[in-house]
Amino acid sequence: MRGHPEKWLDDGENLSGFGSPVLHLEEMLLNMGPQHPSTHGVLRLKLHLDGELVISVDPVIGYLHRGFEKLAENRTYLQFLAMISRLDYLSGIFMEWAYVRSVEQLMELEVPCRAEHLRVIVAEINRIISHHVALGDFMLNLGSWTPFFWTFRDREVAMDLIEMVTGQRMMYNYMRIGGVRYDLPDGFEEKCRDFIKYFPPKIDEYEKLITDNEIFLSRTLGIGVISPEEAFSYGLSGTNLRASGVKWDLRRVEGYSAYPQFDFEIPVGQWGDAFDRYKVRIEEMRQSVRIIEQALDSLPGGPVNVQLPPMLRPPAGSAYQAVESPRGEFGCYLESDGGLRPWRAKLRDPSFVAISMLPKLMAGNKIADIVAICGSLDVLMGGTDR
Amino acid sequence: MDYAAILDTLVRILFGFLIAVAVVMLSAVVFPFSMRRLWGFMGDRLGPNRVGPQGFFQPIADGLKLFIKEDITPSQANWLLFLAAPAVALVTPTLMQVVIPFGENYTIADLNIGLIYIVAVGSFGVTGLLLGGWASNNKYSLLGGLRSAAQMISYEIPLIITIVIVAIMTGSLSLNSVVGAQGTVWFGAVQPMAFFIYIIAGVAEMNRTPFDLPEAESELVSGYMTEYGGMRFAFYAALIEWGNATVWAMVGSTLFLGGYRGPWFNSPVWLALKVMVMVFVIIWFFSTFPRLQVDQLMSFAWKVMIPLSLFNLLVTGVLLTVMPDNAYYAIAAISWVSVVLFIALFPRVLKGNLLKKRLRAMKGI
Fold first, then answer.
1. All residues at 6 or more sequence positions from B91 whose CB lies less than 8 Å from its CB, including other chains
2. By CA distance, what is B140's nearest residue in A?
3. Which pLDDT score, from 0 to 100, does residue A385 have?
4. Domain boundaries, chain B
5. Which terminus of chain B has a lower count of CB atoms within 10 Å, N or C?
C-alpha cells in the first residue's frame, strides 16, 4: 500500500462514508540538485517522496555538458589531448590514456617500454587519488567528516607525487601519442618509495575507523544491491561490477600496456551492495600500491616518446581502445578519414552507465539511502555529461 | 507590603536572566571554537588558528560576520513564524538553567519540582525547530523540522525515564536535593546504565551526530535552518545548538556526576569542568560517527532505548523498595553488569540482524 498514493485516494473516498472529510494525500516532489551538497557535482535527482520513502527517482543530467565529442572533431589530434583530462576531472590520466591508445592504434604506433611503465605508474597514482575522493565523499554522504579529511590528507601526498611527474595536480596533459611528455624527475623514485611505505598503513587506519563501525554497516549492508545479471544488462563496469562478484578488469582481461608483467589481485565483492563497493575500492588502493612498486622495480631504460611528424595524419580507419579507469571501462572510439582531425569521436564513460541504474536502485529506499547509493556508485558528472 | 522581598525577587530575576543568557552566549563562543580545533586535530589538520592567539578570536570574527549580514526572509515564507522561530527555540537552553544548582547557594530558583520543570522546558525545544522548518516554506526545511519532531519526541521518553530513576533514588524532585544525595557517591557510578542512556538519548535530543538527521547536510542541505542566514542562522547554529549542549551537560553532571560537588571544595568550577568533559564527548562523537538513518533511529529509540530504560527503572524501584538499606550496592552491580553486557552484545546482535537483512535484500532482486 505504501508507495501508491493513488490507492490512498480510494481510501479517502471510503472514509467519506463515515462522515469524515476526504483525506487528500499526495506525493511530494523534491528537487535534489543540481546544486546540492552530495550529488557529486551537478546531478539533478527528481525525487517523488512519500514522507521519507522515495517512490521513484528521475535523474536529470546535462548540466555540465560541454560537447566533448563535437569539440574533438574540430581540433587536431594533439589539440584535443589537452582538453580530454577535463572530462572526468578526478582521473584525467585515464581519459588521456584511452585517447592516445586509440590514436596509436589508428597509426599502428609502437610505444617504448619505459613510456608504458611510466604510464602505469602515473595511472595507478591517479587511481589512488580518485579512490580517495570516492571514499571521502561516500563517507561525507553518510555524515562522517573525519574520513574525508584523512583521505584528503593522503591524497595531497599522492598529488605531490603526480605533480612531480606531470607538473599538474589535476589536468595532467601528460600522455603523448606514442609515449609520455616527460621522463621521471630527479628524486621521484625515493619519494614514490616513501609513499609506498607510508600509504598502506593509512589504508588500515581508514578501515579501523570505518569498516567495523556499526552505524556504517547499518547504512551500507544490503543497500543498493546490484546482481551480476543486472550489472551486465546495464553495462556496468569497473569497481561497481566487481563488487557484484564479477571478476572483470580490463587490466587483466585485455592485458593492455605493461600490466601483464605485474602481479596484482583483482578484488571482487560478493553481494553487490554499497558495503562491497566500498570494500573493493579499499582493496584496489592496496593493489595499486603493489603495481606502482613493481613498476618502479622493473623500470626499463630507453626513450619515453617517439618522434612524430609535426602534422599528425593518421590513416583512414577506426579504432576503439578502452582502459580500466577508477570508475570502470573508459573507452574512446575514433574514426579517421585520413585528415588532420578525427572525423568522429565517441567517448564511453562508466559514470553515465552507473547513473542509468539510479532509478532502479533508489526506488523504495529512504532519502538517506539516496545519497549513500549515489556515493557508493562513485558517479562523476564531468564524465557523464561529457 | 514587604518591599525588601519584592526587591530581592526583582534582583534575583535580573541576575538569573543575566546568568542564563551569559551562559548560553559564552557556550556559543567557547564551544564552537573548541569543537573546530578538536575536530581539526582529530581530522589531522590544524583548524582555525589565525585570528588571535591559537585562533581564539575566531568565534568573535564569525559572529561579527554573521551579525552584519543581511537579514533575509524568503518571500514565500510565513514571515512572522519565520522570524519568531529562532527566538522560540532559544527559550529552552535559557530557561533550563533556572533550576540548575551552580554552586552551594547559587541556584536561580530552587524549585521543588525542578526535575519536572526540566522535562517540561526540554520538551518545548522541538517547537522552535518545527516552527522554523515549517515557516521557511522549503521542502528540505519541512523534512528537517518533521524529522526533528519525530526524533525529539521519541528520545524524550528514555530521557524522562532516566530522570525518573534519579528522582526515585533521591526521593525528591529538587535538583539541589539531587546534588545533596550524591555526597558520598555519584549517581553515575551507581547507575551507569541510566547515565549511558542519558548520554545517548540526550545526544539524539539535541540532534547531534550520529543522530543529526534534522540538519543532515548531505541529505537535507541544512534541514530546518536551510533558509536562515545571518544572525538568525547564528541563533540556530551557535546559540541554540551549543546552548542546548551546555544545558544538557549541566543537567547530566547535576544528575549523575555530582553537579558542583568535587574533591577538596564545592564550587561552580567543578560544574564547568564536568560540562566541558561532557561537551567533549559530543565533539568526539561528531568526528567519529557517520549518521544513522531515520527508521534505524526510531527503531533504536523504541526497541532498544525505551525497553532498556524501563528495565532499569523497574530494577531500581524494586531494589529500593525491597532492601532500602543497601540497595545502592545491588543497583550498582546490576547496572554495571547490564551496561557492560549491552556494550558487548548489542553490536553483535546488530551485525547479525544486518547480515540477515543483506541476505533478504540479495534474494529480493
1. B121, B124, B125, B128
2. A30
3. 84
4. 67-364
5. N
Please answer whether residues A361 and A274 qualify as being in contact, where contact means their C-beta atoms are separated by less than 8 angstroms: no
Q: List the grid coordinates of B311.
A: 528495565
Flag whether pLDDT at A1 surpasses 50.
no
pLDDT greater than 80 at residue A41: no
Q: Is the ipTM of this complex over 0.90?
A: no
B 187-246 residues inside an 8 A Cβ radius of A = 209-210, 212-213, 216-221
> Following CA atoms A131, A137, A139, A141 in sequence, which dihedral angle do they give, to the nearest 10 degrees?
-150
| B284 part of contact set with chain A, CB < 8 Å | no
User: Is residue B8 packed enough to be buried (19+ CB in 10 Å), middle (13-18) or exposed (0-12)?
Assistant: exposed
**Interface probe, candidates A48, A145, A148, chain B, greatest B C-beta count within 10 A:** A145
Query: Do residues A37 and A78 share a domain?
Result: no
For Cα atoms A217, A207, A130, give the angle at the middle one, nearest 5 degrees.
Answer: 100
Among A27, A30, A52, the strongest candidate for a mutation testing the B interface, having the largest count of B CBs within 10 A, is A52
Contact A360/B at CB under 8 A: no
Mean pLDDT of A92-118: 89
| pTM of the predicted structure, to 2 decimals | 0.85
Same domain, A305 and A279: yes
Q: Measured between CB atoms, which of A142, A222, A272 is closest to B291?
A: A142
Residues A15 and A87 placed together within one structural domain of the fold: no
The CATH code of the domain that includes A202 is 1.10.645.10
Contact at 8 Å (CB) between B108 and B99? yes
Q: CB–CB of B272/B34 below 8 Å? A: no
